[in-house]
Every structure is written in C-alpha cells, then in structure tokens.
Amino acid sequence: MLFEAILAALPVILAILALEFEDLVKSIVSFGAMCLSIAVIYWILNAPYVAVFQALIYGGAILALFLAAVIAIGRGEGDG
Questions:
Q1: For residue 29, is it within any domain?
Q2: Pick from 14, 19, 31: which is nearest to 67 by CA?
Q3: Which residue, of 29, 44, 48, 61, is most buried by count of CB atoms within 10 Å of its CB?
Q4: CA distance 12 to 5
Q5: Exposure string over 42-63, b if 16+ CB within 10 A, otherwise e
Q6: SS in 3 state form for 27-64?
Q7: Number of domains within the chain
Q8: What is the pTM for the complete model shown?
Q9: In sequence order, what are the residues at sequence separation of 6 or more whose Cβ sits closer than 8 angstroms to the Cβ of residue 54?
Q10: What are the tens digits of pLDDT across the range 4-63?
Q11: Binning pLDDT at 50, 70 and 90, where does residue 80 land?
C-alpha cells in the first residue's frame, strides 16, 4: 500500500518541481523523471508496451529535444 502511494505521489511532485524550478536544466530533469515514473506505473499495471513507449518517446525523445533546444538557444546567463 505504501509503494502504491509513493508511486501515485511521485509524478505529481516531479511535475510541480518541473514547473517551479528556475533553472531550465533542473526543470527538464524533473520532467524526465516524471515521465519515467509514469512508465513505472504502467509497467506495474501490467501494460509493458505502454510503459516502453512512455519511456522511449517522452523520457527519451522529448527530453532530448528539450535539452537540445536549451543548448541551442542558450540558458540566458550571459545576457545581462
């Protein structure tokens, strides 16, 4: 019961952290951890295909696109 409660609360906490962090890299890492924790929930619910797609598409591809965009645009530290 405790394990399920932690798995239910973890994506919510990580999503809030992804929105609240000022640093973009920390926000992206929180988003990736949220996506991977949702994949774990799918895996435990006996939906392995959905879990693998969640981990590959959101945890991998979208996260890589976000990181590439941050690197390409810059973090805004040298503007001021």
A1: yes
A2: 31
A3: 29
A4: 11
A5: beeeeeeeebeebbeebbeeeb
A6: HHHHHHHHHHHHHHHHHHCCCHHHHHHHHHHHHHHHHH
A7: 1
A8: 0.81
A9: 35, 38, 39, 42
A10: 899 999 999 999 999 999 888 888 889 989 999 999 999 999 999 999 999 998 878 888
A11: very low
